[in-house]
Amino acid sequence: MSILKLENVSYMYDNRTRVLDNLNFEFEKGKVYAIVGRSGAGKTTLLSLLSGLTSPTGGKILFDGNDVKKIDRYQYRSRWVGVVFQQFNLLPHLNAVENVELSMRASGKKIADKRVRATELLEKVDLDEVLAKRRVLKLSGGEQQRVAIARALSYDPDILLADEPTGNLDLTTQEEVMDIFGRLAHEENKCVIIVTHSPEVAGAVDHVYELASLRGNKKQRKEA
Predict the structure, then answer these.
(1) 134-177 tens-digit pLDDT
(2) What whole-number distance in Å separates Cα of residue 84 and Cα of residue 80?
(3) Going by DSSP bridges, is the β-strand pair 191-195/159-163 parallel, antiparallel, or unpaired?
(4) CATH topology assigned to domain 2-91+158-217
(5) Which of 59, 74, 87, 157 could form a disulfide with 9, with the two C-beta atoms 3.0–4.6 Å apart?
(6) Taking a C-beta distance cutoff of 8 angstroms, is the pair 122, 100 a contact?
(7) pTM (two decimals)
(8) What are the residue ranges spanned by the domains of the chain?
(9) What is the Cα 215 distance to its own chain's centre?
């Protein structure tokens, strides 16, 4: 059963420029998805729609059968959906574990011992206690991305959205990060959705959804 579903979703800027047109995608827990397409095809726009930051101008997005427009948007983003950004968006003056703890406090979810839970999450993404106590500016790009993933998991969301999460990483580190996403989906039953330009990333997921540019009246299509 789908946890996230797009029904005839479209999006237009300024009521003139159509970016997305009648998308009908479904996402299930326990799987990793990739959203691919050329620049300008609307990948970032779609991620904003899925995260609840933007509303579609046509159609609707269903989370667990409920229209996202009718759900408390703050609760949706802070309880059920975690986002991993390409540029990490970590607080540089804090260490790794403090970045994860801060996200827990912001979510408002009751967690008995935030420090213990944050440390466990960092271990889950292959960061040991030494690295957990290191300021994020002292971490490598791959280590910072792991912190960003742990932070997105801090309130145990059902859905994990990732915007070009391997774009700044070398191939070996990219494979390691993709292995983490795979474990989260297949072992912990998360729904992982990745926006990517990388053929290697697209080749490592369970399903691929392709967005084709609407320029020249091309239609968007789906690949499974």
Answers:
(1) 999 999 989 999 999 999 999 899 999 999 998 888 889 899 99
(2) 14
(3) parallel
(4) Rossmann fold (3.40.50)
(5) 59
(6) yes
(7) 0.89
(8) 2-91+158-217
(9) 27
